[in-house]
């Protein structure tokens, strides 16, 4: 009982203000809509999953568990990226776009065809087209931001 612990108050204040800055930058409406859509999607998978699991010869909750896992990975990714300054992507946007276009060419050349379409590389569940959607949004956002003065001067 006689022991005391020294807590560096300046470190606590710094961490608290950093967390406050992150909270101020969060769009809670967008986050709420994202969580609601994720929960709705999980409900739909819970509803339809057992029927498809029977056809795939998997346990009834197979698709729900897999969807929960990926939803968790997505939420962790959202939490991690909330701490990044989005201006960081401005410098990388061209390289990200070039790498994405390269991965799409790799799919075209080396991808496996399933039911007449080629979507993934070597049968993985990760599809470069999904990455292309995100990178296209980032690239177009950076491009529009660089042209904002011209765009703001346009009158209808």
TrEMBL record:
Catalytic activities: [GlcNAc-(1->4)-Mur2Ac(oyl-L-Ala-gamma-D-Glu-L-Lys-D-Ala-D-Ala)](n)-di-trans,octa-cis-undecaprenyl diphosphate + beta-D-GlcNAc-(1->4)-Mur2Ac(oyl-L-Ala-gamma-D-Glu-L-Lys-D-Ala-D-Ala)-di-trans,octa-cis-undecaprenyl diphosphate = [GlcNAc-(1->4)-Mur2Ac(oyl-L-Ala-gamma-D-Glu-L-Lys-D-Ala-D-Ala)](n+1)-di-trans,octa-cis-undecaprenyl diphosphate + di-trans,octa-cis-undecaprenyl diphosphate + H(+)
Key words, A-Z: Cell shape, Glycosyltransferase, Membrane, Peptidoglycan synthesis, Transferase, Transmembrane, Transmembrane helix
Pfam families: FTSW_RODA_SPOVE
Topology versus the membrane: Multi-pass membrane protein
Function (record text): Peptidoglycan polymerase that is essential for cell division.
Record protein name field: Probable peptidoglycan glycosyltransferase FtsW
Organism: Anaerolinea thermolimosa
Top EC class, one word: transferase
Gene Ontology process terms (BP): cell division; peptidoglycan biosynthetic process; regulation of cell shape
Molecular function per GO: lipid-linked peptidoglycan transporter activity; peptidoglycan glycosyltransferase activity
UniProt KW Glycosyltransferase keyword: yes
């Amino acid at each position: 009982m006689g022991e005391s612990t020294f807590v560096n108050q300046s470190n606590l204040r710094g961490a608290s203000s950093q967390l406050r800055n992150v909270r101020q930058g969060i769009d809670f409406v967008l986050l709420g809509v994202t969580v609601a859509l994720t929960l709705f999607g999980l409900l739909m998978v819970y509803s339809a999953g057992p029927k498809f699991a029977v056809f795939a010869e998997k346990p009834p909750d197979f698709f729900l568990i897999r969807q929960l896992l990926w939803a968790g990975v997505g939420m962790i990714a959202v939490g991690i990226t909330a701490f990044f300054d989005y201006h960081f992507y401005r410098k990388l946007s061209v390289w990200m776009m070039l790498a994405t276009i390269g991965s799409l060419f790799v799919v075209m050349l080396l991808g496996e065809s399933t039911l007449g379409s080629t979507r993934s590389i070597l049968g993985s569940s990760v599809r470069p087209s999904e990455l292309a959607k995100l990178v296209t949004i980032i690239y177009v956002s950076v491009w529009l931001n660089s042209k904002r003065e011209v765009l703001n001067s346009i009158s209808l």
